[in-house]
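Handout, section B. The chain below has 62 residues.
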Amino acid sequence: MASADWGEYNITVSIGAATVTQEDTEQSLFHKADQALYASKTGGRNRVTLAAEAASSDIKPS
């Protein structure tokens, strides 16, 4: 993982990604990506989570 000296700032990234299917609507795709983002934020810093991984985990929004 690359790092940079940002002085007094620490920057972290959490990413949620979803793959569109023929059954998806804009709203369902957004929901899948949002769930994946929540799972990344809950799982720790500097993570990328795919929606399929988030759906199979025990991480649920409160």
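Note. The helical segments are 26-43, 51-56. Compare this with the example in section A.
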